[in-house]
Amino acid sequence: MSGYKKAFRRAFPYTIPVLTGYLFIGIAFGVMFAEKGYSFLWAILMSLLVYAGSGQYLAVNFFVPGISFIQVVFMTLMVNIRHVFYGISLLEKFNKMGKKRWYMIFGLTDETYSLLCTTKVPDDVEEDKFLFAISLMNQSYWVIGSAIGGLAGALLPFNSEGIDFAMTALFVVIFVEQWMEAENRIPEIIGIVAAFICLQIFGKDSFVLPSMILIILVLFVGRTRLEGQVEESCR
């Protein structure tokens, strides 16, 4: 147990940026969920069992008439398909973590992936415990934010118009950070070009899904080269 205490203590400073981000976007999610008439307990449960970030924001709009199960599955898959590439690059690390690997797979978000790839494990801490601590703390920040937002949305009526932009803002920050740090910017360029092309063809109200499909197709075509580059960056 002492090994875990040290791992959490040493990992915490690295998760502070995620703490500040997840609290606010978790609060935004909780407020949006409460405005649909659901108890804050459901927001907490969803953050515990789903924990999908942008997928949860998207799910808020699923709880309305006219949304089919197929639409839910397809939209969720498209939004979170990037996690397939994340997982491939971390297979070697996760396979060494025993039973903890199942939680590591479940808890793999954009921010957690970035920390797992870029953070150097301290010499006096076991790698599997250190990485586990990062993942668990990151999810706890999201759950706490969801709880605060759910309670605030239920008890303090206010106009939440535009609050869903919090997730967009977070992704913009992540994109800029990755762009500044990455040696290979081909995936980012692919995303920008695909989104621009689909925006011109399908318009602002319908370009998201075509963009995702186009990006996935291009990434799969060049996956051998890209996977090798991503794996190298995570070693």
Radius of gyration: 19 Å
- Share of residues in helices: over 70%
Shape: globular
Give the termini separation: 27 Å
Strand percentage:
under 5%
Number of strands: 0
Oligomer: single chain
Strand-pairing-aware structural class: mainly alpha
Order of helices and strands: HHHHHHHHHHHHH
**Major sheet characteristics:** none
Are there runs of 5+ residues with pLDDT below 50, and where? Answer: none
What do you see in this structure?
- The mean pLDDT is 83.
- Helices cover 76% and strands 0% of the residues.
- Helix 1 crosses helix 2, helix 2 packs antiparallel against helix 9 and helix 8 packs antiparallel against helix 9.
- It is an all-alpha fold and 235 residues long.
- The protein folds into two domains: 163 residues, no CATH class; 54 residues, no CATH class.
What is this structure's SSE topology?
Blueprint: H1 2-35, H2 40-49, H3 54-59, H4 69-80, H5 82-89, H6 91-95, H7 100-106, H8 110-118, H9 127-155, H10 165-181, H11 186-202, H12 208-221, H13 223-233
Sum this structure up briefly.
With 235 residues, this protein is mostly helical. It has helices spanning 2-35, 40-49, 54-59, 69-80, 82-89, 91-95, 100-106, 110-118, 127-155, 165-181, 186-202, 208-221, 223-233.
List keywords for this structure.
mainly alpha, 235 residues, 2 domains, 0% strand
